[in-house]
Model the fold of this input.
Amino acid sequence: MGFSERFSGWRILKEGLTGNKGWTAHWRDPEPKRDYDVVIVGGGGHGLATAYYLAKEHGLRNIAVLEKGYLGGGNVGRNTTIVRANYYLPGNSEFYSHSLKLWEGLEQDLNYNAMMSQRGMLNLFHNDGQRDAAVRRANSILNQGDDAEILSRVQLRKLVPFLNYDNARFPIMGALLQRRAGTARHDAVAWGFARGADQYGVDLIQNCEVTGIDVEGGKVVGVQTARGPIRARKVALAAAGRSSQVAAMAGLTLPIESHVLQAFVSEGIKPVIDHVITFAEGHLYISQSDKGGLVFGSYLDFYSSYAARGNLPMQEHTMEAIAAMVPAVTRARLLRSWGGIMDMTPDGSPIIDHTPVEGLYLNAGWCYGGFKATPASGDCFAHLIATDRPHPAAARFRLDRFRSGQGLMDEEGTGAQHNLH
Amino acid sequence: MRICCPLCGARDRREYSYRGAALPLPDLAADVEVWHAHVHLRQNPAGPLEELWQHEMGCGAWLKVTRNTATHEILAVTLAEEACA
Done:
């Protein structure tokens, strides 16, 4: 990347004084070649990050990312933008720890403003059992080397005075605070990885739906696409939300059910919520965007769905939870809501692994946790594709754990069964 | 989304709980691969899917519902006990 393409304060000043004529497109729009070393299916956050780290960390250059729509048009642009490393179980713990560290250096690495905001996340607890669980989780996070603090009700009240501490059913007794958690601008994360990958020579090919995966003698040899056949030595699937359909093209049936998760944004209001706040009651999470909109969500709708919209009962539940926990904002009007399609695995944890087809790699099953995983997912998937060995931080994200029953990562402790996550 | 219970009539989604794809139960002595597929693996279609719902807040009956997962349209509802008989 030449100096002239780098973003900097100096360059903004220069462009501002010269009519902003020097800005160019962030990435090329190449025609697909006939042959690549690696084809990545899915131009979302994880696919773009995978391409970026394949090029940057492993020196591969002959890479294509195939996207059926436009870059970042899927779940990376349809989430509540939360970044955190507060998982409890081995497997998830080291992976999300790795991810948060990558997040912290991401903007400098990509030379792109992802609006990373480590505003801190508060997980509220409402009873003794939840406090015990929070303390246990905090200790696990500390053991992993990340930060966690338990705040008493008095300490919490000083920090966020506007919550309903005396709700009769769910009084707020304190919180688990992770100061390094926060939010990032989701679209910018996709764009930053896309620009970074493009600058290493990766071909980002949009409007290029994969319609078939070519397998000969148990080995992948290429893909069929809306823009013609493309040969590839390795094919990497990063199509969360549509993983089952894409994998089926190679004859695979995945341990995944697709579910819809709704998210909501209010009209813009003055700054009121400085942190990301989650409530154990009703699984509500809420933060405030830089534009002033309250961004929030809660549970899955709890039925299989590919419709990128949800139903009213879960919307009602979510609004009730806000009215109960943050009555100060109940007069803010809802601006919009949408649904994202989640790859739900039986244990609620993801998959980054080989498949039974040689040369075909799988990145799937992100459940409702894909956004915060983006950099580490790309880094670990790239490591697997380039070296054929799992990255240590993602070594437990095995596809065969459901068959063997070993190494299940059921963070909620509800059981490794499809309708329980 | 409303589901028409054969016993109670059309009711709101809130009265129902979701079990997942309606799959035939394997033989108890079946191979571990068969059970692994039954418990974990899913066709997960974007389109019509036969699934099990329970009218939990109503009559309690288990229903076999054919529903389009891409549109949420309910295509057919029968009592599960009749569907399996």
